[in-house]
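Quick one: structure for this chain?
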Amino acid sequence: MTDQTQEPITAQEPATQTETASTPGQATAELNLNDLAALKSIIDVATQRGAFRANELEAVGKLYNKLTSFLDTVAKKE
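Got it. Here's what it folds into:
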């Protein structure tokens, strides 16, 4: 905890539950528009491959629509 600037957590260096619980004020992860666009693509591909159960599709669709709307709004502003 001597360094205040932390790199985003990667798969090679996962944070343990105690590490994240002991540093609630520090930003340990970053999320940007490219990440959100990638998430949208992941949802699309997972849906096409049948990764979700029928009873989960409504929630997945709502999240996908919200994400699409947000990305479209941000794209118009830029």
